[in-house]
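Entry 14: structure prediction run for DNA repair protein RecN. Input pasted below.
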Amino acid sequence: MRPMVEEVRIQNLGVIEEAVLELSPGFNVVTGETGAGKTMVVTSLGLLFGGRADPQRVRPGADRANVEGRIIVQQDGKVSARVEEAGGELDEGALIVTRSISSEGRSRAHLGGRQVPVAMLINIADDLVAVHGQSDQQRLLQAGRQRAALDRFAGDKVAKPLRGYIGAYRRHRDVTQRLEELTTQARERAQEADLLRFGLEEIEKIDPKPGEDERLAADEQRLAHADALRTAATTAHEALQGDPTATTGATDVISLLSEARHALEAVRAHDEALAAQADRLSEAVYLVSDVAAELAGYAEAIESDPALLASVQDRQSALSGLIRKYGADVAAVLQWAEHSAARLAELDSDDDRIEELRAEHDDLTRQLTELSTELTKVRTEAAERLSEAITEELAALAMPHARVVVAVTQLEDFGPHGVDEVELRLASHPGAPPLPLHKGASGGELSRVMLAIEVVFAGADPVPTFVFDEVDAGVGGKAAVEVGRRLARLAKSAQVIVVTHLPQVAAFADQHLVVEKSNDGRVVRSGVTALDAAGRVRELSRMLAGLEDSELGRAHAEELLSIAAAER
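Run finished. Output tokens:
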């Protein structure tokens, strides 16, 4: 099933207390007596798609007005993706949209079961519905929309050069931005290069080595305490090994350990446990002897060297100066130097890069000039054909003297889609200058212009649902039949919902809904009813003659329905 609005539920909106609209995928018409609330149907659809929440639309005595819509959408389409991004879900392939307005003016919106900002409804509306009402003629009034409409009308003749133009434009924009950065910030970049060069020269002059700061710290500690270290090593050595030339009784550790080992060795054969202890004492003697020997060597090797200590401290001072400027330690200083060398190489190559970018910029400018010229030519030709097609449609819609002009003018600079600005203008009568649509047409005329445009674009417009309110304002007779015929034609490729007071238009509908009102003496309530064949005859008779049971009116109604059915 193609995308469409399947059902709309309305509560406490205007004069409508409660109503359900079950819509068909084709041509849906809504009729009813004046004041019954037909316009509220269009208002409800507008609210579903982000329209302004007016608290005065809340039914008197009610706290809140609610509108709920069930919309069939493509499960792998853009709308479904946006709903999923918002955290909502589809209900068996349908999107449930709700909108409520409190009598104080607060508005809430839900999309696929998830509360969302009203702006989200506006965001998805462009892909779902086009509302052409007295206050909603915005879609094709936007300059970008009019340019896109003309491009869609022109077809492949515009599509191919436009794809090439868009790619070249994006690259041209990036190159221009990069050139401006390189040229306008030349002074700042030169200053940055000087600072980097100074830092690198300073680091290169001192030439720090990885881990050098840690090694120097250890050397400085050893040299600064050489006397204390030598004394400690000598004292420890004498305690372990004593004086080997002494003739008195030995009191050093090795002699005492040796004496203990000899005592155990004499009796080790009598007990394995004691023999094991004798072995451990032997190991201890060897270990302590090794330590004593190393301490003797250490004490002999270490010496006070004030000159070497001063040299180490000077080197530490030089490295500390680098660390204060360029990093937390020598490793960080070396890392800064590596990154800065790469950045300096980039800055030093700016002149060459600028020349390359200028050459590319000139080439892209030439491409854009050629492609934009081609686009202008194709659009101008298509604009003439589109103007004629829309004007021809208007002639059949009771605007025989009106003329639509699709004006293509050139901007001074390249834009995202070329240098062309497209504007639809309407001359409502001979001799009148063509004016922008929002200035040159009344509300009813504007609706008919929009209908003519949509009919011309039938099948090519991506919007699946069109809503027209008062499209037949100021129309009657044969022109009204033409309006109905064109709405039916549009309904072959999209869902169409029309509020009308003309039986000639209503006769072409696939689904006829009537808004009925009743009066219980206190308050008016309105509801919506789908009509069967007999009901349609009665309603058309009322619209024709003002009397539901007029034989002449019923005969005329049946004739209208027969003619419309034959043409659909």
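Notes: The chain has a mean pLDDT of 85. Will compare against the previous run tomorrow.
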